[in-house]
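Entry for the shared binder. Reason: the reviewer on the internal report wants the predicted structure included alongside the sequence.
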Amino acid sequence: MVKNSFIPVISQEKKEENPGSIEFQVFNFTNKIRRLTSHLELHRKDYLSQRGLRKILGKRQRLLSYLSKKNGIRYKNLINQLDIR
């Protein structure tokens, strides 16, 4: 498992912009999801990590649905940048 595997799509300026923004939160959740997914490929029976992954997936899903209702353009840009769907 690589500890510092970040998505290079969002620039440093965007990260420093607002850590409470929806894009930043989705970015962090996506990093956590990718780290947990690679962990679970090695440790298939780690049920606590599976539960944590499902919780993070739900949080990201709720944030993305909120963003799609409020601002569809920002939602589409974020989805394309992170290659989520």
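Summary line for the report: Residues 47-70 form the longest helix (24 residues).
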